[in-house]
């Protein structure tokens, strides 16, 4: 079954007040299907705090190393293409007609 909602996160670099002994604030782990984080992108990623107090799962997670270009290619471009094709989340197709 195809899903229409994807949960994506982009993490910014920590600010000075957030750093603790040069340790990362969070750990970004790629999912089972991927061996490494490629270009700052992890698919089916788990993000957990350094102290282990919280854990989140995302379809895609972008680390602070991910460029704007990479984020757009993975997320923005497919969404724009769907909009320009006229497809709605309900799989209905609408066309813009000249009246």
Automatic annotation (TrEMBL):
- BP term (GO), one: microtubule-based movement
Extent of the signal sequence: none
Q: Where are the transmembrane segments?
A: none
UniProt cross-references to InterPro entries, sorted A to Z: Kinesin_motor_dom (IPR001752), Kinesin_motor_dom_sf (IPR036961), P-loop_NTPase (IPR027417)
> A GO molecular-function term, please?
ATP binding
* Positions of the Kinesin motor domain: 4-99
Q: Record's superkingdom? A: Eukaryota
Family, per entry:
Belongs to the TRAFAC class myosin-kinesin ATPase superfamily. Kinesin family.
- Name by which UniProt lists this protein: SdcS protein
